[in-house]
Description:
The structure is a single chain. The chain is of the alpha+beta class. The chain is 72% helix and 7% strand. It has helices at 3-29, 32-86, 89-92, 95-116, 123-135, 139-146, 154-185, 188-206, 224-228, 232-237, 241-271, 279-299, 306-314, 318-325, 329-357, 360-411, 413-416, 419-423, 427-434, 444-453, 503-508, 529-537, 540-562; strands at 455-459, 464-466, 475-480, 483-487, 490-495, 500-501, 515-518, 522-527. A hairpin with a 2-residue loop joins β4 and β5 (490-495). α11 packs across α16 (360-411).
Amino acid sequence: MSRAATxxxxxxxxxxxxxxxxxxxxxxxxxxxxxxITLSWGLWIAGEWGALVLLSVSAYDRGGTGAVAVVAALRxxxxxxxxxxxxxxxxxxxxxxVVTLVLLSWTALVAVxxxxxxxxxLLPLYLVVTAAAITSTTFRPAINGLVxxxxxxxxxxxxxxxxxxxxxxLGSLLGPLITGLLLAVVPIDGCYFxxxxxxxxxxxATLGIRTDFQPAEHRASVGWRRMLEPxxxxxxxxxxxxxxxxxxxxxxxTTTRGLLNVFVVAIAVSLLGQxxxxxxxxxxxxxxxxxxxxxxxxxxxxxxxxxxxxxGMAAWGLPLVLIALWPSTPIVYAAIAxxxxxxxxxxxxxxxLLHRLIPDHLLGRAFGAxxxxxxxxxxxxxxxxxxxxxxxxVRGALAIAGVLMMVTPLSCWAALRKxxxxxxxxxxxxxxxxxxxxxxPLTRLALEQLARVARPLQxxxxxTVIEQGDVGDTFYVVVEGELAARRDxxxxxxxxxxxxxxxxxxxxxxxRTATVVATTTSRLFVLDGPAxxxxxxxxxxxxxxxxxxSRRRLQSDEERRLL
Length: 563
């Protein structure tokens, strides 16, 4: 290939990347709800990192690395225990309301931390940190569940998750950096109040979030099934080999993150010979790398997710090995930035995968299980970091953690490489479901999820599909052909392509109101009652369309009976 042709191809590739970046930016800027969610998330991350820096400095000044490890464990261990049951709130209440309440609680608790530090012991601070950890347990599940509620199509979801990762990176960069600068000029008590103000601004951002989603109608469980409802997220996260592979790698990554929270202090003091306050700059390097990774995902949001997810997770390991081998200041900062970049890439593709494969009514609990596990693993990592450092010194501990994190994605590759197949869906099936007036209002994401679980049914002429008076909750969409609905032996309507039936029994739990018989060879899609009801009742326009169709049919049948 000539040099001119090569240069032309490079320019086209660069222009394409810029075009994708601009397209992603337009998706976010044009969507009011998404703008507010990303702003709220960025402020939360900045405030959380700022609080982490302040707590690390306060704990180290009072009790050394042991106190830092205790604070890190308390920030994560209570959340690990309470997140799965608390995340049920994100499926039973409007998620924007949950987000607002959590932000209000953190505004108050961070403002109280300076008062807790005036005590003779660290116990009051430990109690406040524990309370903050518990109140935050529903924040991530709720805000992760909000993202697909303000977008419609998979490409918008990818852009939304890239924006989510971008503002997370900005928050991770600016939060510790600005906090470190404040510590140099402002008393630490004042720094805590500034961070509390950041959470207060986030409250204002969430107040304007509006969606058409609502908590889906669910039939109350009884006995032991009711007790297991909060744990349904774990089943959702592990129901396929692909999801299990993602979950295993995620466990390894969050354990490594817990180690890193303690390693950063040890790296700054023991390897670089700096003051503990420099941890803010090191954490900022993590955010800077995350920013670069997030921008990369904006340009590559059409990539198939398996490989970038795996490489992003492996990027948590290699930089730790590099720091262990060459612990110079440039290598340390570059390596930590590399971790941030890998984390951003892996997060975007993991979140998009979960959003597309897990239905909305389970997203709160699924992300509750996701982040509850993360909290437990981070607590474990923070707890084992000090003894690991004592056993193998700082460089040895970094090398051990890095090698294990590099190996884990490789060991799960057989399952991870099938992620791309799990996301595939026949667009024609989606279009056929969308012709049904009850399902038409649903978002493209919801229709794709229904298309994955819809069962095709071919009926010969004369076949009875449902019988009046029978008990059943399946819902049917006519793809092709013609069927007749008969009540008490009298034909009440004819149905053809795009029509549907079975919604009354599915929504109300009552017996079938009519018999439906195929008058020609027909093709149908069959949806199980729970999948249909949860999808439709969780979205206001679809819920209204279903209620209106049921009302019209019952009214028409009653009028025919009276005539």
